[in-house]
Amino acid sequence: MSNRRHQLCLLLCQAVLVAGCQPRTNQGTLVVTQTPPSPPSSPAAGNALDARYPLGSRIIAVPPHQGPDHARILSTGLVAAGAPRLSPDGSQILFCGQTDPQAAWQIYRTDLRGSLPQRLTDMPGGAMDPDWLPGGRFVFVSPVPTPYQPALSKPLPALYAQDLEGGSAQRLSSALGAVSDPTVLQDGRILFVAELNDPEGNHDGLFTVNSDGTEVTAFAALHDAPSRIRRPRELPDGRVIFLAKRLEGPDSVDRLEAVELRRPFSSREPLGSWAALSVLAADPGLDFPVIASCAPQTASELNHATAAIVARDPTTATLEVVFDDPAWNDLEAVQCAERMKPMGRLSTIDPALDFGRVLCLNANLSQQHQSSLPSLLPAASRVRFLALTPDGGEQPLGETAVHPDGSFLVELPADRALTLETLDADGQVIRRLHHGFWVRPGENRACIGCHEPHNSAPGNFRPLAAKAPAVRLGFKTPASAVARHP
Amino acid sequence: MMKRALILVFALAGLGVGSAVALSRFDDTKRRALYMWINDTTRSLGLGVRKRDLRHMQQMTRLQDVSNVSCRDCHGISLETLPWAQPRTRHTSPDALALSPDGARLYVAATDTDEVLEIDTSTRQVARRAEVKGGPAGLAVDPTGTRLFVSCQQQDSVASIDLIPFEETHRAFVGRGPVGIAFAPLPDHPRLVVANAASDDISVLDAVTLEEKARLLSGREPYAVVCTGDGTRAIVACRLADIPSVDIPPSSEVTVVDVPRLRIAQRHTLESAHLSESAAVLPDRPWLLTPLVRVRNLVPITQVARGWVMSSGLALTPVNGAGPVTQLPLDEANAYFADPSGLTVDAQGRRAYVTSAGGDVVTVVDLERLLQWVDQAPPLALTNAINDLELSAHYVVGRIPTGRNPQQLALSPGGETLFVAERLDDSILVVDTRSLEPRDRISLDHDGDRDPVRRGEKVFTTAHRTFQGQFSCRSCHPGGHADGLTYDFDGDGIGDNMLDNRSLRGLAGTWPFKWNGKNPSLKVQCGPRFAKVLMRTEPFSESQLQDLSAFLQSMPPARTVHASRAGQPLTPSQERGRAIFFATRTPEGREIPRERQCSSCHMPPLYTNRMKSSVGTRAATDASDEFDTPHLLGIAASAPYLHDGRAKTLEELWTLYQTNDLHGVSSYMNKQQLNDLVEFLKIL
Asked: CA separation (Å) from B432 to B100, B278, B422?
């Protein structure tokens, strides 16, 4: 008996030793989305993902420094798949996939061993762009947008979060235009792209929001070179890269650009030279800061016509092919690397409440007021709040007086698309917030001023509004009469 | 059944009486302990409580149902048993650094172990150790390199060490809690300038005899001193802000001393800034540099992002008093470097190095770029500079990662080597300033992490647990104390329940915590709710909470009596004040109702009954008129007072904010009686 126990102990020790000595097999592994160069005949692309990941698209895992012969298919059982995101420990991926051409795209999870993917979402309009949140949750976008379809005929894509182990999805965003490409930053916030329609035209901007949907905040690329923006990704060196297609000028191709986290509003610039390659996607790499999927603009660039995964050596500025499967378009790649887990956050939402509070420190403060030039605008005496309805209309919620120091404090319906206008003494609109905002139930939201200077901390003063009770604004008609965003 | 119960009662009563008789010769403490044991035991057996005791408990607690009240809640504490009164593990932590003029030797003050260490900078080994009692906290080497002057924080003195035998030769008393010390090389009369942090004054000493030549009033908690090259000016950076009205921004002081004339030359104020723990004069430029924490305590804490609560920066102050003070940020738009502590500038004035004690980095500032920006910036931009979180990118040229809790710095005479005191790792990091890369690490102690108190201090001082590293526990509780500011937390609404920040010193045994007395333990106080309201991240883990709790309970109350008076009998004024504090009748013989006697709520030995009381201080925005009764140990050092910090001094509690004698009966007191009471409170 004793001998058996001894043997068992020995076996266990060996097992532990073997497990402990095994290298991290996933380190450096590439997870690649491949699309067929000539997609099989299929129904016309119905939505954005159908176009991006045509039938036959798949996700593979390739061990470090190996070629396509060593690839393992991860999207087994799906007719199309794409947008893989690695878990912080590098052992699993989230991605979007489709079980048959008519089915809606949903979010799946699998490990890198090639286990059968597990479906996580069941969103009526489909789901896309997943990423891992701390605390066993993930964020994604739903519904999948449909090109060429009038925007108002379908709900706009919004951010959702859901537990990995099931449960219903909670909507995080309630305003701005269509949102896309959420990516979780190291500090735990979700960085995402939002479509804006403001005096600068219809363009995209980068915003952040907490993992519970609170504190939606402008992050970068709002007032510099209106662009269509895709795939923001945080690099370990303190930069955020993204693909931008300028809306002005002749340059209409996607360019890889970057902003520094330390000054995101004043550091936007192109990221290196990618020769004559067209960058389709870019992500942080392991041996190189960035690995990108590049398509040759002429067939001679990569010796064939399909896209490949390429890295740019920052010291020599030379391009190096990291992975290339000539039989497929290597559309995007993520690489396993030891990454810090993003910081978690306890939600500040109080689900028992149906309102959130907004404290503005000075409605008259704007970027212009930071300059030495006198402002041409009159001081605001009132602020009007409006709810944006799904049909594109507006419904007034009421007005509140602005205190002499420019501050105001209001309670507003939670989880609604909201906007505001500052009014002069005659009731004329001085300024209007063009892209909307929202508050979550029980959220206490504050801003320095309307059109506040970005990345500015507040001054240290006690706003008069904080000394008076909050003004409750809401729907004059019962709330249920106004359609909520689905 | 009935019979058994009767037997039990009689047995217990007999045991109690027998024991009481047996212990009748014992002191009050033991008799009280036995009495409480009997009382608690009979109650736990469901046998009730004597009517007299019940009345006493109801009267004292103002509760009808006292089933959850134990005798020990009020009587079961003795100071000797509290964690902060117990012996604890000591660590050779580097608290101050000073280099010999030739850079060959580095001196290290280790407050915790009462030592000064000498390190050979070529071998990077500890060469000699000298015992310097009383918590060595600051160092200054004379220009000849033969004497080292040490400020001793716990013994309110300055020691002089002869560096040849490496022995203490002289010692002299200064003000309370001296920390910063600097040598002023006046040609005929070299002086020492000492910042007495606990008594808010500055001592100027004769550097030869250590005779105190002058004691000058400074701002609140003077902490660091630096002298100009000719020794004519000493600049003192203060850690705490003066206490303003609740709606007025606080401001701390940079005090400039005219050393030859022994008087104050200028007082500069740093608006909405405090916690300056070092200072440097820029060579050949009329500027003084101090690190600071820019605080935004008047703004409701609806978020912590974007420096909403506080941020780190530098103050650029004119040495000669001409021109405004400019505050510049050290933080970035999405990353913060909390608790700027040590600062040093190279001999050419090209670079400044600033430690972030909470962020574990040294920030490298290009001073030429910084001054260039200041020269070109319009006045409004200079005023708003500290709030512009993208500005530091203009002049911050490096961030050097360090071990835990980097504080003081020393730069070799040529500027090529930077020594960083990694206080909570008990080590000194050696950095090559050309590459900004670490070159070596000098270890002073080992196994610090085996000590839960040390681990808890690491939790207390780290900013890595706060969203984007914005601040640490220490940012509001420097030295475990309080920053003296009032905050508006949004957990209970915006603008409601303004709260004075309370000291954490001497809090062992004073549960419950918070002004509303809702938190029964430190684990609850510092747990998930704290993470939700303040850190805005994940809560501390269970083990971190345990360590943090051990550290918090290890901190003794602030010392408020000068070391030279320790153990002395009370002065007549303090004696009279003591009598007033414990009075049950007014001098005219009128009875003071029990619940309004000072000692009923502020019951020794902790001077709290750990209950909530209504003392007529409810403000319009307060949710309740009842507040936790604070302990009074070290109360003289924890101004302002009352739950919202409205009383700047102890006197104001009764001269301005007394309502209908609800906060003790004071209407009979004349000025002298009130002074006597305050004098007594100041020694608790």
From this structure: 19, 22, 16
Q: How many residues does chain B have?
A: 684
Contact check, Cβ <8 Å, A462/B298: yes
Taking contacts as CB-CB distances below 8 angstroms, the residues of chain A near B272 are 459-460
The Cα B594–Cα A173 span in angstroms is: 58
Residues of A in contact with B532 (CB under 8 A): 346-348
CB B280 within 8 A of CB B343: yes
- In Å, how far is B374's CA from the nearest CA of chain A? 16
Do B538 and A343 make contact, defined as CB atoms within 8 angstroms? yes
* B204 φ/ψ sector (left φ>0, alpha ψ -120 to 50, else beta): beta
3-class DSSP string for B150-184 = EEECCCCEEEEEECCCCEEEEEEECCCCEEEEEEE
DSSP state of B343: E
- The tally of CA atoms less than 13 A away on the side-chain side of residue B116 is 31
The amino acid at residue A318 is T
Specify whether the CB–CB gap between B548 and B522 falls below 8 A: yes
Q: What is the residue-wise DSSP string for A56-120?
A: T-EEEEE-TT--GGG-EESSTT-SEEEEEEE-TTSSEEEEEEESSTTSPPEEEEEETT-PPPEE-
* B136 in Cβ contact with B157 (< 8 Å): no
Cite the DSSP H helix spans in A167-303: none
What is the sign, positive or negative, of the torsion defined by CA atoms of B615, B619, B622, B624? positive
Residue with token string 């949140």: A133
Contact A187 B467 (CB under 8 A): yes
For chain B (length 684 residues), average pLDDT per consecutive 10?
61 57 57 67 69 75 71 75 93 97 97 97 97 97 96 98 96 98 95 97 97 97 96 96 86 96 95 96 92 96 94 93 89 96 96 98 98 94 94 97 97 96 98 97 92 97 96 96 92 83 93 88 90 93 96 96 93 96 93 91 91 89 90 94 93 92 93 96 94
B384 touches chain A (CB under 8 A): yes
CB contact under 8 A, B298 and A267: no
Q: What is the Cα–Cα distance from A57 to B487, expressed in whole angstroms?
A: 56
Does B294 sit within 8 Å of A460, measured CB to CB? Answer: yes
> What is the Cα–Cα distance from A384 to A395, expressed in whole angstroms?
11
Interface touch B299/A345, C-beta < 8 Å: no
Query: Rounded to the nearest 10 degrees, how much is the dihedral formed by the CA atoms of B7, B8, B14, B18?
Result: 150
Q: Which amino acid, residue B252?
A: S
Q: What is the pLDDT of residues A153-173, one digit of tens each?
A: 568 899 999 999 989 999 999
Please tell me the total number of residues recorded for chain A in this structure: 486
Alpha helices in A117-255 (DSSP H): none
Give dist(CA B293, CA B470) in Å, integer.
11
Chain B closest CA to A251's CA: distance in Å?
Answer: 29
Residue A84 tokens read as 């893989």
Contact A187 B295 (CB under 8 A): no
- CA-to-CA distance for A16 and A458, rounded, in angstroms? 54
Does the CB of B387 have a partner CB in chain A at under 8 Å?
yes
What are the pLDDT digits (tens) for A169-214?
999 999 878 899 999 999 999 999 999 877 777 889 999 999 999 9
Query: What is the model's pTM?
Result: 0.90
B74 φ/ψ angles, rounded to the nearest 5 degrees = -105, -35
- Cβ neighbours of residue B553 under 8 Å, at least 6 residues apart? B82, B83, B84, B507, B508, B522
C-alpha–C-alpha distance, residues B409 and B395, integer Å: 20
Residue B205, SS3 per DSSP: strand
Instruction: Find the residue in A nearest to B247 (Cα).
Output: A462
Q: Which of B246, B220, B225, B249 is nearest to B235 (CA)?
A: B225
